[in-house]
Amino acid sequence: MSEVEETLNRIKTHKGVAGIVIVSSDGVPIRTTLDQKLTLQYSALISQLAAKAKGVVRDLDPTNDLTFLRVRSKKHEIMVAPDKDYILIVIQDPNADQSQN
Q1: For residue range 15-58, what is the model confidence (pLDDT) as tens digits?
Q2: CA atoms of 78 and 54, how far apart (whole Å)
Q3: Any idea what the Cα angle at residue 50 is, between residues 44 and 52, rounded to 5°?
Q4: Cα 52 to chain center, whole Å?
Q5: Model's pTM, two decimal places?
Q6: d(C-alpha 8, C-alpha 71), whole Å
Q7: Are residues 77 and 84 in contact, defined by beta-carbon separation less than 8 angstroms?
C-alpha cells in the first residue's frame, strides 16, 4: 500500500470524517471518497477559496504563504491543506463527538 493510501485510510478513520478529496492545483479531482456531484462541487469551490485565501495571505505579507485553512459551519468543518501540486480537502461533521453521547 502506498504512503498516500495509508494516509487517506488513517484520515478516514477519524471520528466524523465525511469525505476526502485530493485536487490538482488546477482544481481537477485526483482522489475522492465522495460521490461525483459532491466531488466536483467541493473541488471547484474549495480550490477557488484556497486560491483567494493564498492571495490574501500574500497581500498581507509577501514573504508568507498559506499552509492550512479551516472553515466551520453548523453542519460541516472543511479542512484544506494546499500544497504546490495538489490540495487536500477533508470534510467532517464537527458535532460527531456530541452525537455519540
Answers
A1: 899 999 999 988 899 999 999 999 999 999 999 999 999 999 99
A2: 16
A3: 100
A4: 15
A5: 0.88
A6: 20
A7: no
Q: Are 95 and 101 in contact (CB under 8 A)?
A: no
Q: In b/e form, how buried is each residue of 31-59, taking b as 16+ CB within 10 angstroms?
A: ebbbeeeebbebbeebbebbeebbeeeee
Beta carbons of 50 and 58 less than 8 angstroms apart: no
| Mean of per-residue pLDDT scores for the chain | 91
* Confidence tier at 99 by pLDDT (50, 70, 90): low
DSSP string, 25-85: TTS-EEEESS-HHHHHHHHHHHHHHHHHHHHHHHHH-TT-----EEEE-SS-EEEEEE-SS
